[in-house]
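The records we work with from here on pair a chain with its fold. Here is one such record, which you should read through line by line:
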Amino acid sequence: MNSIEAGALIIENLSMLEEARNLLEGEVEKKVFAAIDELIQQWVDKQEWQGRYDFYRAATYFASVEWIKGTEADWLAWYSLEGKENNRAKEDHWCLTTALAVGVQKIGFRFETKYGDVKGTNKTRWKDFIIGQNKKYTQIQEIGFQFEDEEGTWFLPWQLDVKLLASCYRDDNIPAALTPVTQALACLKQAHPHFLEIVNAVQQEFEVAAES
């Protein structure tokens, strides 16, 4: 189908598309990400960690007790649920598009440290240090994390199955489609000891204060 034919179909079905968009941006995405947030929160609670779980309206992130210092702004490191841009620097219009990997972005868990508060250093020194940590802890990438050298972060992608999610949504059983999230959390737990070591190294190398 060429663009002219596609455009004609859009015009003919514009009211249906408008209704579908409103439903997707409201009820559908809200239900799916509420289920994902609930799954993450249950997992985090079992670890006796802390976090915030509101991806649809704000953000979802969490941290182990070793990294929690004072307020959230003082945390030494954390994991977050985020989308990852591709090389074309384009973004998906809907978060659900990203979660299903049918657009140009990927969704996953990102690990990052509070490098903005590192003392006595600059961006170049930080980058050299974190690249060295990545080379030291090769197990992290073997587990499935992707190293992001520009930011000094690691990203663990996952994706939901389109047909399975549609079927589970129809049955009002969204959690049954979230096995990839559970598997990603298991990988995160496997990599966590290495991230603990990295955060300890950051503190030792740059004398990061326990409090801001």
Notes: The longest strand covers residues 77-84. The beta strands are 50-53, 60-63, 77-84, 106-113, 146-148, 153-158.
